[in-house]
Amino acid sequence: MVETDCLDVIRLFINGFPTQGVSSLVQHISKLCSRDWIVSFHHVLRSGNRVADSLAKSSGCEDLSTRIFRVPSTSISQLLQVDVSGLS
């Protein structure tokens, strides 16, 4: 299951995209989707995905390296606490 707040991304993968001119990340995701498993795309509101939104904003657009967080940052901890409490 792939969740994103960007409907354009969902349309891109459902409807297909040109083989030229797309980023290597899109090509990599496409290869993963073509494996022998079921992949579904789901739209989520940005407000319901605050932790992912914050993490995406904190990384550089060009930095695709893997990061492992042993302990969440203070800002992420606060967002997680809001999620757990059910408050917006």
Description:
- The structure is a single chain.
- It contains four helices and two strands.
- It has helices spanning about 5-15, 25-35, 50-60, 75-85; strands at about 1-5, 40-45.
- It has a two-stranded parallel sheet with strand order 1-2.
- The longest helix has 12 residues, at about 75-85.
- The radius of gyration is 15 Å and the shape is globular.
- The two termini are about 25 Å apart.
- The model has no long low-confidence stretch (mean pLDDT about 80).
Outline of this structure?
The chain is mainly α and 88 residues long.
CA-atom Rg in angstroms:
15 Å
Number of domains: 2
Helix and strand content put the structural class at mainly alpha
Strand content: 5-15%
Largest sheet: 2 strands, parallel
**Count of DSSP-assigned helices:** 4
Shape, principal axes of CA atoms: globular
Q: Bin the helical content.
A: 40-55%
Question: How would you state the average pLDDT, rounded?
Answer: 80
Order of helices and strands: EHHEHH
Unreliable stretches: none
How widely separated are the two ends?
24 Å
Give the beta-strand count: 2
The largest beta-sheet arranges its strands as 1-2
Comma- or semicolon-separated keywords:
88 residues; mainly alpha; 2 domains; two-stranded parallel sheet; 4 helices; globular
What is the strand and helix layout of this fold?
Layout (H helix, E strand, L loop, with lengths): L1 E3 L2 H9 L8 H10 L7 E3 L6 H9 L15 H12 L3
